[in-house]
Design goal:
CATH topology: Transferase(Phosphotransferase), domain 1
Strand content: 5-15%
Helix content: 40-55%
Order of helices and strands: HHEEHEEEHEEHHEEHHEEHHHH
CATH architecture: Orthogonal Bundle
Strand order of the largest sheet: 1-2-6-7-5-4-3
CATH class: Mainly Alpha
Largest sheet: 7 strands, mixed
Number of domains: 1
Length: 411
């Protein structure tokens, strides 16, 4: 029995070995065919497959990163600007992204002011303050190296202004696709002083409030002229450059410098770009540090506007200064300068203001006082304390039209 089993085992073993050998031979044959096919495949096709895969992966990664970046809130990068040599701490402003500003300004549809050279938008930053955005209306083809140099110089100059009565520069936007040059300021919600005085809202500016505005502007100019080195001169000081906050605090903003830089006149001694679309005044930078007397005169005009409620020039009455001179020179006639929409005013305050105006509007520039001296006159002569404010409080909330027959009343 055992021999038979041994033979059977041998046969089976031989058969198994034979089957195993057949399978092995078949596998080797298939491997040889695969190697032959692989060897016959062009190398460039293999490289193309690898390159295509890498491009697809890179595209997917880029798409995912872009989507995440759009959906996630971005913080504005902080950029230090150096103060004057007398200050140790740098001023920190931000570089804004156009995309963020577009969202904040509702697709740049929230326009609050325009001119041929700039557009002024209102915006609200996410988890941040309300902002005012000045956008320069200039095409990239008209933007020269000189424009860029002037833009950077103006940003640096504005960055050093730090006073409670001066509109604060929060940041700027500089992008080339699409071409954008924008400035970001804190927003003053009550519009301009000019609008309040001359568009039917003057009755909201009672006497003490007007005096506070006047002193606030004087303090801002004192800071610009006497506390900064080098001094900062406002390009075109007027009541439209004074913005009012929610509590009617004045904020001085120098927007005119950008209009000067991008003036659309072709008559200029300065640089004219191709086609004459934009130019820079050759003396625009020099006027920054030579026009203090002009600012002083302009402040005198603003004081007259605040007291009288009249615009600087009227077609029917002519120049405000020429009209006021007669009353300024006669103390007994000063009361005729007062805005008829005011219920009451303080005669002592009026005398102080008229004295300051007379000094500011002197025809001889060399005789005009510094803004430091003018500010001292106003601060020492006018009472803007809480007690003075309360004296007028009974009339603040009345909805009836402003009384016009009490212009000679005094407190």
């Amino acid at each position: 029995m055992f021999p038979g089993n041994i033979v059977s085992f041998d046969v089976g073993g031989h058969q198994l070995e034979k089957d195993h050998g057949t399978a092995t031979a078949t596998g080797r044959h298939r491997k040889d065919d695969f190697d032959h096919q692989k060897a016959g495949q062009p190398k460039w096709l293999l490289f193309l497959e690898i390159f295509t895969g890498a491009v697809i992966v890179a595209f997917l990664i880029t798409a995912i990163y872009t989507a995440i970046r759009k959906l996630s809130p971005k913080s504005l990068p902080m950029v230090p600007w150096k103060r004057t040599t007398k200050s140790r701490d740098p001023i920190i402003i931000t570089i804004g992204y156009r995309q963020q500003l577009e969202i904040a300004c509702e697709d740049f549809s929230n326009i609050i002011g325009t001119s041929p050279d700039i557009i002024l938008y209102k915006g609200i930053m996410k988890d941040g303050p309300e902002i005012a955005v000045i956008s320069l209306t200039v095409a990239e083809k008209d933007w020269t190296a000189f424009h860029e140099l002037h833009f950077q110089s103006e940003v640096a100059d504005l960055a050093r202004l730090n006073h409670e009565n001066i509109a604060k520069l929060l940041g700027y936007c500089k992008e080339n696709d699409p071409f954008s040059r924008m400035l970001i300021f804190e927003y003053a919600s009550n519009g301009t002083l000019y609008e309040y005085l001359h568009y039917g809202e003057g009755c909201q500016l009672y006497w003490t409030r007007r005096m506070k505005i006047a002193i606030g502007i004087a303090r801002a100019l004192r800071h610009l002229h006497n506390e900064l080195q080098p001094p900062f001169i406002v390009s075109d000081l007027n009541s439209s450059a004074i913005y009012l906050t929610e509590d009617f605090s004045p904020k001085l903003a120098d927007i005119e410098s950008w209009k000067m830089m991008l003036s659309r006149s072709e008559k200029s001694a300065g640089y004219v770009s191709n086609g004459g679309a934009f130019h820079c005044f050759s003396d625009s930078l020099e006027r920054r540090h030579t026009g203090a007397q002009e600012n002083t005169f302009a402040f005198g005009v603003i004081l007259l506007e605040i007291v009288s409620g009249r615009p600087p020039y009227c077609k029917d009455r002519g120049s405000l200064v020429n009209w006021a001179v007669e009353y300024l020179e006669r103390p007994d006639m000063m009361c005729h300068l007062v805005d008829p929409e005011l219920r009451y005013f303080k005669h002592d305050d009026l005398r102080v203001v008229c004295n300051a105006v007379s000094l500011c509007i002197q025809s001889d520039q060399s005789k005009r006082p510094s803004m430091q001296a003018v500010c001292t006159i106003l601060e020492n002569g006018i009472d803007t304390s809480a007690a003075a404010d309360l004296k007028e409080s009974p009339w603040r909330g009345r909805s009836s039209p402003c009384h016009v027959s009490c212009r000679l009343s005094t407190l």
